[in-house]
Structure formats: structure tokens, C-alpha cells
Amino acid sequence: MLYLKDYSLLDANDMEKNSNLNRLYVIKIDGKNKLAKDGIFSLKDDEKNAPVLYILPVPNENELGDKSFQVDYNTKYSYYAGGMAQAISSVEIVVALAKAGFLGTYGSGGMSIQDIEKAIDRIRKEVPDRPFIMNFLHMLNSDKLEFDLVNIFIKKNVNIVEASAFIDLSPALLYYRISGLYKSQDGKIKSKRKVIAKISREEIATKFMSPPEIAIVNTLIKNKLITKEQASMAANFPVADDITVEADSGGHTDSRPLVSLLPAMIKIRDEIQSKYKYDQEVRIGAAGGISTPASALSAFAMGAAYVVTGSVNQACVEAGTSEYVKKMLAEVTMSDVVLSPCADMFELGAKVQVIKKGTMFPMNAQKLYDFYTRYKSIDEIPEADKNRIVKNYFKASIEDIWEEVKKYFAKSDPRQIAIAEKNPKFKMALLFRWYLGNSSRWAINGTEDRKMDMQIWCGQSMGAFNNWVKGTYLEKYENRHVDEVAKHIMKGAAYLLLKNTLEEALVSKEQIPDYKF
Question: In the prediction, which pLDDT does 16 show?
Fold first, then answer.
């Protein structure tokens, strides 16, 4: 039997934020399990010595998840903040996280090429030696815009992208990936450009975990975008380094539960790894619903290599959205969100999760989608309904809105207008997408006369976070800094792991205080 002498019992203050403790001792005193923080081991059964039941390491937040994720991305934590479009995940978010040793993603979706280029330059100036991620939002039916984006990434030496909302692999994404392949001195295939794919469907995940489709690869060779040697290497290399399993999240979502989706994706990864035997297997991370220590720890316990946050960062000081929206987000409960048609995949009926409290946007967007599915053109819509669209949604004539749409696509992708002029149903879709697209900008800008039209992306995790921090300094959105939120989630997860272990060791709950902010 091992005993402990000259020990000090644990004080509540010692447990706060895990302090600097490396290990704890569960000892038996007067028939009860007690916690000691130090002492000297002894084999002597003496009345001053206490028998040692357990020696427990104190988990550290840096130890959670897959260490290879931290090494590959030069980050201190198996955690990153995901991209939120239109620079809601702003330069300020990326910089604050980078300075604290975390990875952050810039939300390039919906931003101009010029703005994206400026954002990269600003990040590099603020944190020249720290890694960061640029979001690569799939642009359905617009290869040109995707190639424009990729060309900027390559020009600016952006070596990590988060590919999101992809429903299939695109030539531009594969160009970004494959053109970065090379062989190291030991003969192993490497890529200087990393891809983290945010996925919610098994069939899409399979494509990202597998080598690229040969047809697209051949087209890239034909267009002299990659070499034959790189194409040969790509045949034995996955499209993505990491798969972020996106469960019930804010924004684009299939509303799938993480407890079902994550194990399914891990199983697919294992099968693909068994088939191709990559030198580095594709890691599987978890997103959607991650906003508290309990949710983060649960994801790690299910096998997630890393965790990703989204909605909670939108309510932080550094987020690129209006004060009005941040205040609303800080008051959201889990029942205040709903699914609504989205702008970028409107015709497909894809959904985004948004706030329903304090805005009519979800109802308005659904009404527009119903009109789209029911009629072949906007001229077929009954006059009374068309007048309501003009008065309540557009607040301008259809002709005026169409002129705005044409001006937008004249700069970004003129082919869309040419198609719409020949296809009345597609023209109707572009008009309706004007409302859906601008609704998020009204929220970001805090447009006063458009409060009831604001599209505010948000998942149920926001409500869970608000409940967790209630009564603490983080209850007020003005106190929420993105790096502090990240640290509390990870430190809290490590603390919760310790707390659960102590409870299993039959230490009374009175000796284990709650996590302190």
C-alpha cells in the first residue's frame, strides 16, 4: 500500500482554472475520500500518513484533441474559429486569436476580391509570423469567381483554406490543392497548401477524403494549371487534410446531430485510410453546437481531433457585425432560432439557421421561396402578392431592383445576367436572392429601417453559451473577446474532464467547485 505524508489538502482556490497543478492525490482520511495537492510518498502505515487511492494527472487544455493538428498548423490548441461570411469573422477576430495562439478564419464569402486581398495584407501586417485560415465558400455555377479567389490565395501565399458549402469538388479548389503538391526529401508526398473541408454529408466527405476525380485533374493538366507530376502525386493524396464535421450549426446546415454524424464520418475516414494508406490520415473535427466546455469535451470524447466554434464568436467585440446584432445574440435562447432559405443556394432549397426573434426575415424568405417553386416567372405572381413583395420586401420597384442586380453581376459575373435575360425563372431567383443577400448586410451594418428584414445567422449553440455564462462577466456582450471565449471553452473542457474523473474516484462534489471565470 502506498501512503502520503506531509500532504496539504486541496483548497477551492487551488482548483480555480486548474491553477498550476500537475497532479492530484485521492487519499482516504477518516473513511472519506479527500483530495491532496502535494505530499511525500511513503510505504509506512502511520496515523499521520494517508493511504493513496488514486494518483490523477490534471488535464491541460493543450492536451485535448489530436496533437498532430497543433503541430501541422502551428497552433497551441486543437481548436479553431470557423469562417462566417461577409467578414463577420473579421480581420480583428483572426488577429486576436492568432496573438493568443489560436487559429481563426477570415470570412471571405460575399466579399470582393479587392477586400479579401486587403484583409490578407492586414492580417499579415498584424501577425506576420502566425498562421491563419481563409474561408473558401463554394460559389455555385461560378467557376470564374472561384478561380479569381484561388489566384489571390496563391498570389498571397495563403496556405490554409476552409472549404465550406461545397456540394461537389470544383476545378478551382482542386487547382489550389494539387498545384501545391511536392515530394519531400524522404520521398513522401506533401502539400504546401492545406485544405480543411467543412462538411455535413457523408457522400461529400468521401470525395474530400479521397484522391481527386481524374476528369477534373486532366482538365487542369490540359489548361496547364498543374504538372503531370503533380497529377500523379494527387492520385495518392486526399483532397483535404482535415474534415470539419458540421452538425446543427448557424448559417448553412443540414441540422444533423453531432452524436450521429461524427462517428459516421470517422468510420468513413477509417475505411478510406485502410484503402489508400495515406502517410497522414485525414483528421476529423467537430463543429456545430460547440460553445461550452461540455459540448467541446463531448466532441473530443467521441473522437474529434479538434473542435470549431462559430455562432459564439459572432457576439464578440471583434466580430464584423453591428452592435445591434451583438446585443440580440447575447440574449438568444436555444428556441430562438429557425431554418430559412439561403441566398447562395436558393434554387436548390438549401437552408440556413437564423434568429427568428425580432425579425420577419425567416417568414419573408420562405414566402419568396414558395413563390419561386410555384411560378415560372415573377410576372406570373398574382398582382396582390407582387405588390406586397415590392412594398414590404424590396421597398423599390422590380425594375429598380433588377438594375441593382445587373450592376452587381456586371462586376462579378456578367454571364448570370445573360442567362437570366433568356430564363424568366432564373431572373426571378436573382431578384429574390437580392433580398436574401442584402438581408445579411442590413444586419451587419445595423441598418435602422431594415431591422425587421435582418438575416442573422445563428445556431442553438449561442443559446447554450448564453446560459453557461449567465451571471458572469461574459453575460454582457461588451465583455466578450473572441480569444477569451476560446480559452474559457478549452480550459473549461479540461476542467470538466478533471471534475468527471474526480467524481468517478468517489470524491464528494463539495470538494470539487465549479469552473470559475
Answer: 58
